[in-house]
Amino acid sequence: MNVLQFTDNGIYCPAGDFYIDPWKPVKRAVITHAHSDHARWGNQYYLCENASVPLLRLRLGNDIQVQGIPYGETIYFNSVKVSLHPAGHIIGSAQVRVEQDGEVWVASGDYKLENDGLSAPFEPVRCHTFITESTFGLPIYRWAPQQQIFDGITQWIYENQQAGKASVLLAYSLGKAQRLLYHLKDKVDHFLAHGAIAIPHEVLLQEGWPLPPIERITPDTPKTAFKNAVIIAPPSAEDNAWMRRFQPYSLGVCSGWMQVRGNMRRRNADAGFVLSDHADWAGLLEAVAATGAEQVYATHGFSSVFARYLTEKGIAAKEVTTSYGDEDIITNPES
Fold first, then answer.
1. What per-residue confidence (pLDDT) applies to 269?
2. Which of 184, 183, 211 is nearest to 198 (CA)?
3. Integer Rg of the chain from CA
């Protein structure tokens, strides 16, 4: 039974008449998380996990019709049972469990298995069919424990300060930026941030998330404030006039893509920190195995390689083309 179908508008449930993370406007959309490639403007009705509601309103407008539900609560679309389960990707991220006549499909959205301390930890959901991302679906992508990575970032900041330099860290504005701030808050006294970081950060502070205060950089921020400072900025700020005011500074890029030798050089970065909010190769395999799924669809990323590997291991797997992948369209980028 095809509980879910891949259509021109997105992942569709015919019996329930809803879509999961549609990339074209539809009547009913179940949203896995608030990144711009999964939560798009123009749908009539949105359903998401409770913590995603203020983030969806921030990115899509306060006038959207959105309903939030807690993890594990079941609702019905016609005769179809739908529930949301932790994905561990960012705050409010969820996997969507869809059950029709005893057949269970799970659409994972984006996910990671390591507990970041903010996102609800990934929860494997047993199912017949699993739709998985494969952003880092190659064996070369294997993450070190996050504490090791944050220790490296802390040491890098210290060395920059000893050299009289500011430390500029590039990280996605929603998700990774908060992860950095959360794990560095006991190591750094004061953070400055680009407006694209500060806006969602302020929303999350208002919602009670345990994040440190930050200072938003504006045209009036004096140059003296940047000496030895720790500055968080989105990837889009790289190589533009906005960053020149921080000289002298050292640039660090926080991304899973830093695993590949040469990417740091191509980004003109002084340091590359392999920090990702997606599962690595081992994490993807562990997640698939934990579902017990007999059938797997691999979406955005190295989907053909990952699907082929699963097939060789005896799991019926296919590659599916979607419109996911560009997760950091900046809200109000002007600082």
1. 85
2. 211
3. 20
| 3-state SS class at 99 | strand
Q: How far is CA 191 from the centre of its chain?
A: 22
Q: Three-state SS for 231?
A: strand
Domain boundaries along the sequence of the chain: 5-140+278-319, 146-273
Please, which residues have CB within 8 angstroms of residue 151's CB and are 6 or more apart in sequence? none
109, 21 contact by CB (below 8 A): yes
Assess contact for 108 and 131: CB atoms under 8 A: yes
Report whether 136 contacts 302 (CB < 8 A). Answer: yes
**Calpha distance 302→137 (Å, rounded):** 5
Q: Where are the alpha helices (DSSP H) in the chain?
A: 53-60, 146-162, 176-184, 195-206, 241-244, 263-266, 281-291, 303-312
Instruction: Tell me which residues of the chain have a pLDDT lower than 50.
Output: 329-335
Q: Give me the CATH code for the 5-140+278-319 domain, please.
A: 3.60.15.10
pLDDT at 1: 84
Q: Which CATH number fits domain 146-273: 1.25.40.10, 3.40.50.2300, 3.10.450.50, 3.40.50.10890?
A: 3.40.50.10890
Whole-angstrom CA distances from 119 to 86, 156, 247, 274 are 8, 26, 34, 19
pTM greater than 0.85: yes
